[in-house]
Amino acid sequence: MVTNRDLNKASVAKKDEFYTQLTDIEKEMKYYRDYFKGKTVLCNCDDPYESNFFKYFAMNFNSLGLKKLIATCYVTSPFMYTQLSLFEDSDESSAGRAGAKPYKVEITEVTDENGDGRIDLADVEYLLRNKKNTLSMLDGDGDFRSAECINLLKQCDVVVTNPPFSLFREYIAQLMKYEKDFIIIGNQNAITYKEIFPLFMQNKLWYGASIHSHGRDFRVPDNYPLNAYEFRTDENGYRYINVKGVRWFTNIDYKERHNPLILYRNYTPEDYPKYDNYNAIEVGKTTDIPCDYFDVIGVPISFIDKYSPDQFEIIGATESEGKGFSNGLWNKDSKVAQPLLNGKKLYKRIFIKRKQEQT
Fold it and tell me: How far apart are CA 74 and CA 149, in angstroms?
């Protein structure tokens, strides 16, 4: 299983080619089916031929009632040259081989080409191979920060993709700048980033619905080193590694995030001591949050998996998450920004308060 340390190494090495499985995409998208009607969807970190995000939205284009689907890939996509046959006997084919230019796909309709009464992957592949006007070369390298990709971003209503792990901060910042809806994949520790945590605290960003525990298998290129704790090769020779701590991040609301956490334990000073250096009580497990305490509580970051904005308010985090996040709860005489309990350092904590009494 890939650890946070492995992801940091991937960040440094720019080995960001983690490809999401179709089943994981399907499990999350079902919570937003009504939302997509009439929308333009952008998958701007996705090789159109290999990306399961592109395949999902192309196969479900009609059932979701999409207006348009756009997908782009980066110049270093390991699968890009596989599809240069789409440009056979054309100037674009020669240009692609010579200059390694990526491409984009824009779809406004998907039809049942094989006449079997349903839209499937075969129909999508037919669309790519026979309707050349849907597919064209990009002028630049396909980087989501490039001017032409930003122009595509401006055209869309919602972005759905798996952005590079190493550029997660920049990616979120761009989405917020252009005020776009999004459903993307990242690591749960991103909540501790100084650029990301305020968005959770201000209720501008939250976790998606379908992943709250365990790792997820991601396909990796054939040349990717399989040195993770858990990896596998399927019957087609495709390679997968298991990445833990994966979460969906979104700013699109869904009803399940408003379900309250059932609380059953009672507060006592003995069971819930205060930190040495923060004016809050320690609750080491989300399930142990007391039902009769309405002041500030410190909880692990895993609390966000159960967070209901109707039940709790996020008011801060330990100073190790970024200066000023504790909102005055930190004893500034302390030389340790991590939470201390009886002199012992604890891991990162988020500070919360109850909004209403439990019925």
Answer: 10
The number of domains in the chain is: 2
Same domain, yes or no, for 204 and 310? no
How are strands ordered across the β-sheet holding 297-299? 281-282, 297-299, 350-354, 312-317
Q: Which residues of 165-204 are buried (b: 16+ CB within 10 A; e: fewer)?
A: bbbbeebbebbeeeebbbbbbbbbbbbbbeebbbbbbeee
Where is the domain boundary, 256, 271, 296? 256
**Residue 240 is encoded by which pair of tokens?**
């997968």
Tell me, yes or no, whether 328 and 298 share the same domain: yes
The residues pairing with 313 across neighbouring beta strands, listed in sequence order, are: 353
Q: In what order do the strands lie in the sheet with 103-107?
A: 135-137, 103-107, 68-72, 40-43, 158-161, 181-187, 246-250, 206-207
pTM for the whole thing? 0.85
> Nearest CA to 142 among 80, 76, 47, 74?
74
Same domain, 122 and 103: yes
The residue segments making up the domain with residue 331 are 259-354
Do 120 and 112 meet the contact criterion of CB atoms below 8 Å apart?
no
Q: Which of 205, 189, 317, 287 is nearest to 245 (CA)?
A: 189
Q: Are 216 and 24 in contact (CB under 8 A)?
A: yes
- Please list, in sequence order, all residues whose beta carbon lies within 8 angstroms of the beta carbon of residue 85, skipping any fewer than 6 positions away: none
Structural domain ending residue among the three candidates 212, 241, 256: 256
Q: What is the pLDDT of residues 255-283, one digit of tens each?
A: 999 999 999 999 999 999 999 999 999 99
Q: Are residues 246 and 303 in the same domain?
A: no
CA distance 336 to 331: 9
pLDDT, tens only, 154-206:
999 999 999 988 899 999 999 999 999 999 999 998 998 999 999 999 999 99
What's the average model confidence in pLDDT over 19-28? 91
Q: Are residues 288 and 225 both part of a single domain?
A: no
Q: How many residues does the chain have?
A: 359
* Same domain as 228, residue 156: yes
Do both 279 and 214 map to the same domain?
no
